[in-house]
Amino acid sequence: MPAALRWLRHNPRIAFGLLAVLLVALPFLVGAGLGRSWVRVLDFALLYAMLALGLNIVVGYAGLLDLGYIAFYALGAYLYAWLGSPHFGLHLPFWLALPLGAMLAGLFGVLLGAPTLRLRGDYLAIVTLGFGEIIRIFLNNLDAPVNITNGPQGINLIDPIHIGGLSLGQTAHVFGIQLSSPHLYYYLFLVLTLATILVAMRLQDSRIGRAWAAIREDEVAAAAMGINTRNIKLLAFAMGAMFGGLAGGLFAAFQGFISPESFNLMESIMILCMIVLGGMGNIPGVILGAVLLTVLPEALRYIGDWQRAMIGHVAVDPNDLRMLLFGLAMVVMMLYRPAGLIPSRQRKREFTAEDSVAEQEQASLYDAKA
Amino acid sequence: MSLLEAKGFKVHYGGIQAVRGVDFEVGEGELVCLIGANGAGKSSILKGLMGLVQHGGEIRFAGERLSGRPTHAIARLGLALVPEGRGIFGRLTVAENLDMGAYSRRDTAVVRSDLARVYRLFPRLAERRTQLAGTLSGGEQQMLAIGRAMMARPRLLLLDEPSMGLAPLMVQKIYQTITDIAREGVTILLVEQNAHLALQVSQRGYVMESGAMVLSGSSDLLANDPGVKAAYLGE
Asked: Per-residue pLDDT tens for A164-196?
């Protein structure tokens, strides 16, 4: 197997080709092998990958700890629902509703960013956490005096995405192949996830990306280099929020139903965990983290079945066990792979650096004498 | 006219006044030092100049008023600060750190030749260009901080305690480079606790005490001043 991998590394075109074929065939393989409900899990994995890549801009690139990220997801989802459901009787097309949701989220990203610019570290985390809760509580309570969000009941019957004449909400037949709604959404999400990856990569290597890295490392020094730290930080909040808003709109269309419950603090923490687990600042790591943390909890549902098969009844509620195992996994990760599963170049070197500074100091002293 | 001129310059942190209305100037091409004991307000002056702390009074740099400008705008006017404790970007490589120094510049061809110049000044940095800055030794980090500031091609280089926490031989080496940089025509304002060293390399100096300038003059004169000798040179 390693030999095959090495061979692929030297033949990137073939590797990409195989990966592309695998990604296209994946929902069929998963559907046939694990059952149709798993295609939905795949869809969610892609949604979370988009979310995590967005949060990674804020946390991984710019180093701003945001614990209220789910609020942007919520805003995108609700805007999509308002513009495409019987709730207000509006039925705008997705190519209008999705970008508007991303823009609304981006705007709120700036609104959140502006007053928090002077805050760092823990303080920023607390304020963003509060922001996330404020949005959720607003969504929960804005059903009176004017019914905007429909309160805890949420908004139902949200329009699925229509592309041309094709509704992604219904089973379609393309070239004689039967594609269910989760299959159709899978391909849409796949395309958008790839686009997100592309944007994230370009951002990281751009002038803005370098400015983010500088601010993350030392804000005062960054300002002294001529970086407008205020604007660059706001930009990080806005860019991250836009990805969140976009994913939110997709979520609303895919589910057909949203309620404030979907956007609680636990979700924000989950997305942050995806980044930390996978490898902060590193795109493949973040995607792996998102996929793992979406798939694993689903897989752990089977624990109930195993128990029944082995001892005849369910002794431990799978839901309790899931969180226990999840917590355990995080602790083990932090102990053995603190930089994440696939760490970024910088963090990897930071954690494994063979830097005997004392030795170097000696060397430099010698240098000075010479 | 001087490159930098400060009149009635004050810095305060909340209610505490760190610098109490001082006057000083730095002429084009000069190496001026600012010496004084710990807490005299030397670093506060540099932070104030860069707009990093609240300040009052009148500062003019090349005829432009600095007061009220944000730090990044001041940097773009041509001031570069090598902060106390170096402020290097630890998880970026040496090369990336130097690259950040030229962040506001568009003249890529000149930037490339400036990079070569920095590597000439500090061959050590060239050897370690792909290494993470955080893994460098203290002296190398100081070299990197100075090199990074040079990448901005500053009209005025502000150095905050470049000798702090370094082994004596490394201090010698850093000071040698500072003199080299000054000889190339870069104007430098040097803040230093090590009065002996600072007066050796500079042309003029100011002596600070509890937020006020108590003495100023040519470095030779200051080095021979009985008060300075007693208080700062330990003679």
From this structure: 878 888 888 878 788 888 999 999 999 999 999
